[in-house]
Specification:
It contains 11 helices and 21 strands. By secondary structure, it is of the alpha/beta class. The protein folds into 2 domains: 216 residues, Rossmann fold, CATH 3.40.50; 109 residues, GMP Synthetase, Chain A, domain 3. The relative contact order is 0.10. It comes from Candidatus Kaiserbacteria bacterium RIFCSPHIGHO2_02_FULL_55_20.
């Protein structure tokens, strides 16, 4: 982890009078206020945290801490929570050198997450053939035919597309040359790992953890290959500091094996467009080791979300505001609910089952479940009932809210780990 003098220097640089006012405003500094004092870990932990809402409240141009000419591009979140996308300035930060530990980088690379020019720049720096194929989810088969023709031997792709990508490359006869598969990690099922190992017999398979608003993303990089029945384990990239806090009280927790709480990130690459200081990721992490054998660094795994108004599922997103819309249209009194998404790993893939815990006395719950499924939109023209018919989801269930076992404050959308 980063030492305290380095963190104090980052705070000082971000609050200087000539810097954008973002952090001075967040810390309540006015006029010639003294710079924040960061001489002890207690003072560091007392520093206000930054949330996504803080970023959304300021335009991207107000969050640029480098010359405008040094901004590489603006990244946009997916907006899956029902909100407009968050646009974030990104500096010229490569940050993919960690792949050299696992991957020789001799052939073209299939890039499904980051802009291809960043990957190309990293390959050029390492004097490798700078050939990058962009994965286009809207033209998936066309981009994979190009990847096969180019002879890609490595890829960085989203989890939800990984099985389709693997099967199509296999059909094109291009899977056996693949040496490296990196997944932009969400929850990764055992069945997916097995399927990728079967289709890519020569490849090592890894996962990384990132966020679009973090300049140095991915922040959590592979500590070891993925394996069936083992945790997905990361360690931090250089120039990233992590704190772990109680998700309800936000009190700091010790960075020791077994500690579990919300992860706060401080990201400070030298060429970053916007330094993030004590940013609430919303992800719940667990410290696995204080020092791993291979890298002598702390390792961690992601176990869930602290609070979320949406859950990603095949075909789209389950959103709290959409559940609320459907329930109140059926009956204005149906205001209180929790939606629990259960996931079961099977040989054919992950099965999804939504259980809606709803405060609906004197209501026939099976009939309510059928009505909700018919109206609950997951995509622009795709409902939960459509997913049931296609075999993507098990039938939606409604149960009394009093039977909910979550006991989580302010959580209406709860994802259960893959069983």
């Amino acid at each position: 982890m980063t030492n305290l003098p380095t963190l104090a220097h980052i705070v000082t640089a971000a609050t200087m009078p000539h810097a954008p006012s973002f952090y001075r405003d967040r810390y309540g500094m006015r006029g010639e206020s003294a710079l924040p004092s960061i001489r002890t870990w207690e003072e560091w932990h007392a520093l206000p945290r930054i949330s996504r809402e803080d970023l959304e409240a300021r335009s991207p141009l107000e969050r640029i801490f480098c010359p405008l000419s040094s901004v590489d591009f603006f990244s946009a979140s997916s907006g899956t929570g029902g909100k407009p996308p968050l646009f974030s300035p990104r500096g010229v930060v490569a940050g993919y050198e960690y792949r050299a530990e696992w991957y020789a980088m001799k052939g073209p690379f299939l890039s499904g997450i980051h802009p291809p020019h960043r990957v190309q720049f990293m390959l050029q720096q390492r004097e490798r053939p700078a050939r990058v194929v962009t994965l286009d989810p809207n033209n998936l088969h066309a981009s994979l035919r190009l990847a096969a023709a180019a002879g890609v031997d490595g890829m960085y792709v989203p989890v939800f597309l990984a099985a389709q990508i693997a099967e199509y490359l296999q059909a094109l006869g291009a899977s056996k040359r693949v040496q490296y598969v990196e997944l932009a990690s969400e929850q990764i099922s055992n069945s997916l790992i097995r399927r990728l190992q079967e289709i890519f017999p020569a490849a090592a398979i890894y996962a990384s953890w990132g966020m679009t608003e973090v300049d140095a993303s991915p922040m959590g990089i592979p500590c070891r290959p993925l394996a069936v029945n083992e945790k997905t384990v990361y360690h931090l990239k250089e120039n990233i500091h992590m704190d772990i806090v109680n998700p309800e009280t936000l009190a700091p927790l010790p960075l020791k094996a077994g500690s579990e709480g919300e992860l706060l990130l401080t990201s400070y690459p030298e060429s970053a467009a916007f330094p993030l200081i004590r940013y609430r990721t919303g992800d719940i992490g667990r410290i696995v080791e204080t020092s791993c054998k291979r890298h002598s660094q702390p390792t961690f795994t992601i176990v869930g979300r602290a609070e979320s108004d949406f859950i990603k599922v095949p075909g789209g997103v389950l959103r709290a505001d959409e559940v609320e819309r459907v329930l109140t249209e059926l009956n204005p009194a149906l205001e209180r609910f929790e939606l629990h998404l259960h996931q079961t790993d099977t040989p054919s893939g992950v099965h999804y089952r939504a259980v809606l815990h709803v405060d609906a006395p004197d209501t026939e719950l099976p009939a309510l479940a059928r009505s909700v499924a018919l109206s609950l939109r997951i995509g622009p023209s795709f409902t939960y009932a459509d997913g049931e018919r296609e075999g993507r989801f098990e039938p939606l269930q409604c149960v009394p809210l009093a039977s909910s076992a979550s006991n989580q404050k302010n959580r209406r959308m709860i994802t259960h780990p893959i069983a």
